[in-house]
Amino acid sequence: MRRVPLHRRLRLLAATLAAALLALLATGTASAIQPGGITDEARLMNDLFWIVTIAGLIVFGLVGAALVYAMIRYRRQNDELPPQFHGGGKIEAAMVGVPVLIVIGLFTISMIILVQIDDKAEDEALTIDVTGFQFSWQFAYNLNDLGTNTDPNAEGTIAVIGTPANDPILYMPVDEPVEFLLKSNDVIHSFYVKDFLYKLDLIPGRVNSFTVTARETGDFSAQCAELCGTNHALMRFTVRVVERDEFDAWVAAEAARQLGDGALVSTSGTQGD
Length: 273
Ligand SMILES: [Cu+2]
Description:
Blueprint: H1 6-27, H2 30-33, H3 40-73, H4 89-117, E1 126-133, E2 136-142, E3 157-161, E4 169-173, E5 177-184, E6 189-193, E7 198-202, E8 208-213, E9 218-224, E10 236-242, H5 244-259
Parallel strand pairs: 1-5, 4-10
Antiparallel strand pairs: 1-2, 2-3, 5-8, 6-7, 6-9, 9-10
Helix pairs in contact: 3-4
């Protein structure tokens, strides 16, 4: 069999690698490679994503370089069999030791970040009760559990209840921790807000919770991420992150509308519209 000259083989290899890299860049726009996220927790996840990705790229580069070096340096020169020997203590120790150290390092960093992400909210944080049902959502706010502007004398609950035809809006304030308590009375749903980089199931008979601190205001689309029946696809909702003032005004307006005037004794004089 005719041997393909080395330089042609190398050129083929380089072309293949370049094509693979181009394909990667073409399919992955910046946002697809870097998921983003608007909460402190999402930013931690982003950091973890980049640490693992860069560590992987470094390993890929080193292994690839060693492979290419060995292919060139030790390619067949003639038909003589090269010297045969067994064992190579240092190399074998490095081949076992280095990956073990990398795995321990990545595991430790992941655990530290995961624990930070799963940090529970302080008791005084705003709590939102989320109930998933076939096929929409209810978001309930207890008037004496509103976070920084809680009025201890306030009583009652206001709720936003969506329908499959009318997506509900979940209001939350920016720059403060918000705790979500997730419940379901029928089947398993999943609370998924893409810009939180977070998804958590709502399971009948138990309460799942998580806490986020949003750092950007705006509307963020969200949806149920667990196939829960025929109209699962209609279980969309919007997370509306607003400034505290605007949040308080919304609460005051909803309290007046749902519970009548005077339900909210004093939320720093904010008024609804
Ligand atoms: Cu669902």
